[in-house]
Amino acid sequence: MTTAPFTPTALTSVLRQLQTGPLPALAAAAPQCAPARYTRALQAELARRCARVLRLLRALAGAVPRDGRPLPEAAKHGGGGRGRGSLASTGTLWAACDEVSVLAAAGAVGLLVEKAEQFRDTLRDVMEELKEWLEESDRAAEREGGNEDKEDGATGAGETRGGDDDDDDDDDDENDNDVDGLAETMQAAHISDSQALLDDLMNTHSRIPPDDPEQIRPRLESCLRRLRLTTLLYTAVIKRRIKAARPLPPAVASPSTAPSRLDEVLPLLRRLPDSFGALALAFYDLDAAEIDRLMDQCWFDAYAVAHLLSAPWRGERDEFTDWAARFQVEVKKN
Questions:
Q1: Containing structural domain, residue 44
Q2: Please, what sign has the CA dihedral across residues 217, 221, 222, 224?
Q3: Is residue 78 very low, low, confident or very high in pLDDT (cuts 50, 70, 90)?
Q4: Residues 172 and 51 both lie in one domain
Q5: Which of 56, 109, 287, 327 is most buried, judged by most C-beta within 10 A?
Q6: CB–CB of 29/98 below 8 Å?
Q7: Maximum separation of any 2 CA atoms in the chain, in Å
Q8: CA 239 to each of CA 138, 235, 318: distance values in angstroms, whole numbers, following the listed order
């Protein structure tokens, strides 16, 4: 396509090689990976990646010149309203083929480990954001308390000075000093208030009020404790269940329940980070009712994950079984 001499026979030989091997294999790959042996997750991901390879290959083949001449420079590199050039399209196709090869090498276990680790990392991000928000709220409450103390002190000083003025007119110099001190105090308080206002403007989230009428702080502390437990649950699931599910696919002579159980729990593992993200927004909105509703949903899903994966792939109990039982007890505590 890009170098001379360019002949139709050179292209047709490549297409025949693709037609006799790679193309039929790509088309049949996903149907051959039955969910009962490979998991629905692997089948769906393989279908998506194979379809992308076929789509990109079709687009590249459609860019072949029909006059038998090599592509001009503009068509090679793209731009100028021509869209992606042939070199970029070829590179994208190679990358898509590499993704299929990586998935084939990783298998169902590798894919599920990767997904679970991504979900766990998202949970950790949510936890860190909530921790920072709690710390910011605490600092804001301390600043407000300090400003109130300064205002009380300034008011008391003003009252004392008023009495002295009535008693003795000879203390004008001393009173002038007091007035200067009061002005400095008020100026410092003004600067502090301005900084607090600036901090509020720069921060898009609400803060927990110092008096906390909706009891947001106790809810947040309980959430952070159980959120940390949930991240530990993901780590334990990855190590004790997903990685222990090998080999997948299981031997035909010894069918396994691992694929179906993993498919059952994966939607919960995927949903929990989204639910915790929504819960974080409810905290930022100081919406106690929505916080309670979403917390119940999160803990129910986390409890269900531990329950569904409590039993090992072989046998009745193992170390994770006992750990999951303790997790279920702890996650139900406020």
A1: 8-106
A2: positive
A3: low
A4: no
A5: 327
A6: no
A7: 114
A8: 37, 6, 13
